[in-house]
Specification:
The structure is a homodimer.
Chain A (H helix, E strand, L loop, with lengths): L2 E6 L10 H8 L3 E5 L10 H8 L4 E2 L2 H6 L1 H9 L1 E6 L7 H12 L3 E5 L4 H9 L10 E3 L10 H11 L4 E5 L1 E2 L4 E2 L2 H15 L9 E6 L7 E6 H4 L9 E5 L5 H11 L8
Parallel strand pairs in A: 1-4, 1-5, 2-3, 2-4, 6-7
Antiparallel strand pairs in A: 7-12, 8-9, 10-11, 10-12
């Protein structure tokens, strides 16, 4: 038995795992987990381990990317890698799966909720009206990419919504807040001046998705930048052209000011 | 207690529900389900009902869209609506949630896997390289929309991947196959002639996502149109420009011919 099962943990806490995922994890010889592509913000490793009823070995980024520890274990038995969200949303996990394939290890994916579909849904925005997703990175010396701004501009130009995922700095254990991400984009606006990230721009934020009380807010950028959305993960959506039901949803579910239309 | 909980069932069978969803369903006074926006193809209502341990009332499309049965029950107690995939991906459910809001009914969403993120992941394609999602409808007298073809063309033009969801005809209980959907697009190609849906076009198909052995295939359109992908749901992805790891994934995970590059 050489088997590597990628098990999605979903969005928030230990009970977001699927029943199928739970059953699979319980029959594995070894269970690994990684929390650097995303964190299980509503739980912790002790609770997760107790819930599954087995020891979980948490791996650092470099160990997952190197892959050898996981692949060696999977060659010798049945192994699970627990991943927050949907497992194959992260390129690292696809890479690991391909390497397992090369070694003749049977792989299996247990899907789960991803913020990619959860955030639009919680805001009541229609998934087929989204353009390309962007990621906002922490600004670093010599790394201030313009592409998130350019993609946002291209989506807006076509009337499409834009989902923005926010960076994680695993080394310093920092998760980017929506406020920080908006600041990154405001700085890009000052440089590139396309008039798409202004005080009057409609912005929506989802935080703590999957928890009992997710934060779901929409409003004008100048107001949203001052708001406290609570603990991460935060996700931003920049609405494009809105259907009347989407307007209704942003007002009722996300507290957007009446009269928004974008 | 006036409460309406939208519980995602995930992709394939009764064990794809999350542990949280299962717990919530079990404490509800009444449990409704709808299977017209998507079907739980790897299970049936008897198995689902037995697994949850409660009676489930399956509602027809018109009853869900009308909403009164669900809203009346939710005004009087704690009610679940079970939905395949992630609950808020369907506009009908957003609409129902907004009407519950208007009636002062507390609503809650239990997220789950959606084909929107599962299909790209199973193919090893990177989510941030997807353009707008399209839906291929069954052709009907007087309804042969060109928009799916036009959006596909716009995505291709920008080098982006395109996810295509396939129609469900709930009244006649027909789920569109990938083969039927490709034929719809080939017919549009004959009319609109942009050269984007040709025999040599690379096409990827995911079927039975979430099951023990999902079908994950990629190849040239002329070959794919003749393939049997087994029972629905089928989902199609039209790859745009491919990263070398994506090429590797399509060859290894989806059996694409070596030498693809698009």
């Amino acid at each position: 038995m050489s088997e590597l099962i990628f098990i999605g943990l979903g969005l928030n806490d230990e009970k977001d795992i699927t029943y199928k995922g739970l059953e699979k994890a319980r029959i594995c010889d070894r269970i690994f987990a990684e929390f650097y592509t995303a964190c299980l913000t509503g739980s912790n490793i002790e609770r997760l381990s107790e819930f599954i009823g087995k020891e979980i070995e948490v791996l650092e980024r470099k160990v997952v990317e190197d892959g050898q520890v996981i692949l060696d274990a999977a060659k010798a038995g049945r192994v699970a890698l627990l991943c927050v969200g949907d497992p194959m949303a992260a390129t690292t996990h696809v890479d690991l799966r391909l390497r397992a394939f090369d070694l003749g290890i049977y792989t299996r994916v247990i899907n789960n909720a991803s913020i990619l579909s959860a955030a639009p849904g919680l805001l009541g925005l229609q998934h087929y009206k989204f353009g390309r997703t962007i990621t906002i990175p922490f600004p670093k010396e010599g790394f201030r990419p313009e592409s998130p701004y350019e993609i946002l501009a291209a989506n807006k130009d076509r009337g499409l919504h834009t989902l923005a995922l926010l960076d994680i700095d695993a080394e310093s254990d920092r998760l980017m807040t929506a406020n920080q991400a908006l600041e990154v984009l405001v700085n890009l606006e000052e440089r590139l001046k396309k008039g798409i990230v202004l005080d009057s721009t409609l912005v929506a934020v989802v935080a703590q998705a999957g928890s009992e009380n997710p934060v779901v807010r929409a409003g004008y950028l100048c107001d949203m930048m001052k708001e406290d959305f609570g603990p991460p993960h935060h996700t931003i959506v920049f609405p494009g052209n809105l259907h009347f039901m989407e307007v209704d949803a942003l007002v009722k579910l996300a507290g957007a000011p009446a009269g928004i239309s974008n």
